[in-house]
Design a protein that fits this description.
The chain has 242 residues and is mainly alpha-helical. 66% of the residues lie in helices and 3% in strands. It folds into two domains: 102 residues, Multidrug-efflux Transporter Regulator, Chain: A, Domain 2 (Orthogonal Bundle), CATH 1.10.1660.10; 82 residues, Multidrug-efflux Transporter Regulator, Chain: A, Domain 2, CATH 1.10.1660.10. The strands form two sheets. Strands 1-2 form a two-stranded antiparallel sheet. Strands 3-4 form a two-stranded antiparallel sheet.
Length: 242
Amino acid sequence: MTQAKPSNAGVRRPIDLARTYGLSAQAVRNYERDGVLPPAQRSPSGYRRFTEAHAKALGAYLALIPGHGYAAGGEIMRAVNRGEIDAALRVIDRGHALLQRDRETLDAVEEAVPLLVGVERGPQGRAAVPISVLAHRLGVRPATVRKWERAGLLQPVRDPVTGHRRYSPDDVRDAELAHLLRRGGYRLDHIAGVVRQVREAGGTEPLAASLRQWRHRLTERGRAMLTGAARLAEYLDSGTGT
C-alpha cells in the first residue's frame, strides 16, 4: 500500500530529511532532540514534520563539522536556534583564532626545521640525568631548565626515592631544541609547539617529512570553515534564529 504524500509539499518526514544527507532517520531525530535543529512541527498524530528551514539547519550543521568539529558545530547551531547570534559568532571566532594559532605554530616549525638538523633522540639505553647535568650540558642555569618545564617544553619524571627531576634522552633532545630555538629568538609558546610536534612525529626527520601534509590539513580546515560559514549564512537568511 502506497503511503499518501503530505498535503504540504514543503513538509518533510525525518526519513526524507535523512535521505537528503545520507543519514538515518534516528540521527535526524537526535539532532532535533539535542537542539542542533529547531523544534519540529507535529502532526495531529504526533509525528514530526520538518520544513525547508530544518533542511537548511541540518546542511549548515554538517558543513560546520569539518572546520569546527562536532562539539563546536553543535554549540553554534544551538546558539542560533535560541536566537543568540552573537554567541554563535563567538564560537566561530574561537575556531578561526585557533586556526590562526596553528598556522603560526606551523610557520615557526617550518622556520626552525633547518636549525634542527642533527638534533635527534639520544640512545634509548642512556640513563636519565638530573637537572644539574642537563643544565651544565646546555650551558644554562637550572632555573632556566625549570622555566622551560613550566612552559611545557620538558616533561621530566621524579625520582621515586629522592623526588628530584630526572631527564630522559627524549627530554635532553627537547631541551637541546629549546636551547637552540631560544638562541634563534623564538618565543616559548612557539617553541612549545615545535617540541610538541617533534614528540608526536617521533623526531625531527619525520617531522620535516610531515610539514607539507600538516599545511594541507590547515588549508582544508580553512576552506571547510568558509563552506560552513556559507551554509550557516543561508540558514540565517531563511529567517530562523534572527
